[in-house]
Amino acid sequence: MARLLIVHHTPSPGMQAILEKVVEGATTEEITGVEVVRRPALGATASDVLEADGYLLGTPANLGYISGALKHFFDTVYYPCLDATAGRPFGYYVHGNEGVEGAHRAIKSITTGLGWKQAAEPLTVLGQPDQQALEACWELGATIAANLMQ
After folding, report:
1. Which residues form the NADPH-dependent FMN reductase-like domain (predicted)?
2. pLDDT in tens, 99-113
């Protein structure tokens, strides 16, 4: 069975709603043969990354950058996972009110360094998530999980 690791920093109700929709999409009944594992960014380990077949990352944009928690995650797993995870698919979402470009740049730079392959367009949610944004979150979760179906 393939494993999707969702690494997230979810400090607000808006981020929680996004995470719940992403997970709902990834675990829809149409997705088979994929185990979904969720880890807060501060608790995710190199072992979690090495045991997964694909990744879905979630972060708020804090002062125009990824959250400190997601940065800590990457700092912790980067070198232990560098060669072993190259080529694995990933997707991500960023939530903010404005100035999210730096967060996108950071994720793109780090995942490029890891050699991960983007499997879906990045999702940006600005402001409070509305129905359209939540549907896009569901689609992101389903798309990344479907990429891992065997």
Report:
1. 38-117
2. 899 999 999 999 999
Count: domains in the chain: 1
120, β-bridge pairs: none
Name residue 4's beta-bridge partners.
36, 54
Distance CA 74, CA 116 (A): 13
**What is d(CA 77, CA 71) in angstroms, rounded to the nearest whole number?**
10
DSSP-derived secondary structure letter, 73: H
The CATH code of the domain that includes 121 is 3.40.50.360
Quote the pTM value: 0.97
The number of residues making up the chain comes to: 150
Domain that holds residue 13: 2-147
Task: Identify the bridge partners of residue 90 per DSSP, sorted by sequence position.
Answer: 55, 118
